[in-house]
Amino acid sequence: MNISIITVGKLKEKYLKQGIDEYLKRLSAYAKIEIIEVPDEKAPEELSDTEMLQVKQKEGERILSKIHPDAHVIALAIEGKMKISEELADGLDKLATYGKSKVTFVIGGSLGLSSEVLQRANEKLSFSKMTFPHQLMRLILVEQVYRAFRILRGEPYHK
To answer: Which SUPFAM superfamilies did the record assign (predicted)?
Structure first.
């Protein structure tokens, strides 16, 4: 399986990079995985609704340009479906079984995802009703994908 994670902005925090690198190394035994960073749109702290929409649209265009046409897209969105780890594992297994070997997860910027990206998504996934920094979501996502492969192989994982 080829997994891409498209994310907005550069990761600056060293401790998050170290955690992500560790899970990417572990995941390499199960799947080909890549993280694609697209630039975030520079914007002032205080934005009007119109300016927020423009920022999300510009970031959305960058995201959409990186999505392979054949990819099954899973957008991380607060309004998405919450799943337990076993359901995520089962979903990835079904995708592989039915020939969807390219899976792309999308993590938006601090303002979220554009409507165009959400429309392109085959499914929307939520990890919580709480809001997390998008940089931290990278680490959480790669850990959950790693856990999903461990579950699918019947290998032990921490519950």
So the answer is: alpha/beta knot (SSF75217)
Tell me the pLDDT tens digit for each residue of 70-88: 999 999 999 999 999 999 9
DSSP state of 128: -
Residue-wise pLDDT for 30-46, tens only, equals: 999 999 999 999 887 88
Give φ, ψ of 9 to 5 degrees: 95, 160
Binding site residue list for S-adenosyl-L-methionine: 76, 108, 127-132
Q: For the chain, how many residues are written? A: 159
Query: What are the binding residues?
Result: 76, 108, 127-132
Confirm if 96 and 68 have CB atoms less than 8 A apart.
Answer: no
What domains sit in the chain, N to C, each tagged with a CATH number? Answer: 2-152 (3.40.1280.10)
Among 49, 2, 52, CA closest to 27: 2
- According to the model, what pLDDT value does residue 132 have? 87
**Residue whose C-alpha is closest to residue 120's, from 6, 8, 2:** 6
Across the beta sheet with 2-8, what order do the strands follow?
A: 32-38, 2-8, 102-107, 72-82, 123-126
Local structure of 52: helix, strand or coil:
helix
Structure tokens at 61: 């265009």
